Amino acid sequence: MKGTWILSWILIVFLSTVAVQSQYYSNSRPYDPKPEKVTNLHFFFHEYVGGQNPTSVLLAQANITSNNSTVPFGTLYVVDDPLRTGPEPDSEEIGNAQGLLVVAGINSTAVVTYLDFEFTTGEFNGSSLSVFSRNPIIWAERELSVVGGKGKFRMAKGFALINPYFMNATAAIHVFNVTVIHY
Ligand SMILES: *[C@@H]1O[C@H](CO)[C@@H](O)[C@H](O)[C@H]1NC(C)=O
Ligand SMILES: *[C@@H]1O[C@H](CO)[C@@H](O)[C@H](O)[C@H]1NC(C)=O
Ligand SMILES: *[C@@H]1O[C@H](CO)[C@@H](O)[C@H](O)[C@H]1NC(C)=O
Ligand SMILES: *[C@@H]1O[C@H](CO)[C@@H](O)[C@H](O)[C@H]1NC(C)=O
Ligand SMILES: *[C@@H]1O[C@H](CO)[C@@H](O)[C@H](O)[C@H]1NC(C)=O
Ligand SMILES: *[C@@H]1O[C@H](CO)[C@@H](O)[C@H](O)[C@H]1NC(C)=O
Ligand SMILES: *[C@@H]1O[C@H](CO)[C@@H](O)[C@H](O)[C@H]1NC(C)=O
């Protein structure tokens, strides 16, 4: 008799635990934000198309007849571009930007960027920024939005100001000045 009672209690406790665990969300509670910091990042974004070691390659292209542009609408590139402290190809590499560039302007040369900037040295080694924006590549100064981040850049928000530094048929180097607000 006593044994049955104990068994029943074990069963009740077990079932109520299962009921709590089977809920896929926690109780909502007031959000208690940590004090935010602002960090400025300054680096050079190196992109090489073609050649021996391209860092940007054509992945897919729509078959459209009005294809007179060198970067026609409906073109998708995958990139793994090094980030360096200077414009020289042998300056210190501090990270890389991986992701997609989509030529998404029908009558303009707008490129939509979907990039993850990961840093591999210093204070932010292993941390990354998620950058997503339309990028009208004909403007001199451009701006991309920082929509999130990982590691030391958790909950990041901010913006990147970009200026072209050097360009030829196979290489493009841009200066990035990023303002990041993060934990
Ligand atoms: C590309 O489009 C043209 C014109 O519409 C068509 O003749 C051709 O077969 C298409 N090519 C492919 C690979 O789909
Ligand atoms: C579009 O034009 C580019 C540059 O001339 C060329 O490399 C590419 O093959 C063309 N794409 C299509 C689908 O015709
Ligand atoms: C593409 O170039 C051809 C020849 O120069 C021209 O006739 C045509 O209108 C152009 N197409 C577009 C969409 O600009
Ligand atoms: C692109 O330009 C053509 C010709 O000027 C126009 O008919 C068309 O509506 C434009 N498309 C967009 C998405 O702006
Ligand atoms: C960056 O972090 C990785 C992984 O923790 C480590 O292997 C590497 O040595 C670090 N690099 C620098 C320059 O601190
Ligand atoms: C473009 O510049 C890069 C870096 O200076 C150089 O290595 C490459 O040979 C140049 N390409 C052309 C086509 O001039
Ligand atoms: C980077 O941008 C910030 C904010 O827009 C500005 O205050 C700063 O002077 C810029 N730094 C460089 C090196 O351009």
Automatic annotation (TrEMBL):
Main localization (coarse): secreted
Cellular component terms per the entry's GO annotation: apoplast
Compartments where found: Secreted, Extracellular space, Apoplast
GO process terms (BP): phenylpropanoid biosynthetic process
Entry keyword Signal: yes
Signal peptide start and end residues: 1-22
InterPro entries documented for this protein: Allene_oxi_cyc_Dirigent, Dirigent
Keywords (A to Z) from UniProt: Apoplast, Secreted, Signal
PANTHER family: NUCLEOPORIN-RELATED (PTHR21495)
Function field: Dirigent proteins impart stereoselectivity on the phenoxy radical-coupling reaction, yielding optically active lignans from two molecules of coniferyl alcohol in the biosynthesis of lignans, flavonolignans, and alkaloids and thus plays a central role in plant secondary metabolism.
Family the UniProt entry places it in: Belongs to the plant dirigent protein family.
Subunit details: Homodimer.
Designated name of the protein: Dirigent protein
